[in-house]
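Batch job 17 of 40 flagged for manual review because the log was empty.
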Amino acid sequence: MAVTQEKLIELLNHDLELEYSAAIQYINHAAVMSGAAYGDIIKELKIHVNEEIQHAVILADQIDYLGGKPSVDVGKIYTAESNDEMLEQDLAGEEDAIKRYKARIEQAEELKEFALAQQLRIILGMEQEHAMDIKQALGK
């Protein structure tokens, strides 16, 4: 399905909203998670917060460059009572992001927005690292 620049901006804004919510979700999960067995992943989640904010900055800049207005809306934030349930929520978010960014790279290239595609590849690589960190913490 061919994508227009306007549609790509809309999709990137949706991605931006989900980066905002991922950062907030990670802040919450890192704060409320407890137990010695979760010490390492709590440290990782705090690193993920800053990386998700970096992704948001990159997306906002790219949306502006493409002539759009970066969204200030925040996507859905998931919370849970158990550490493992929180990690499952975080993993689901990362897996969704990986799928979305793979599609977004193809869409950017289709429009010959190669610099955008390169920025999205960097974000994709970081999202895959996040997924690996969380899978390891879950013993998957």
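Reviewer: the log was empty due to a logging misconfiguration, but the result itself is present. The chain has one domain: 5-138. Unflagging and moving on to job 18.
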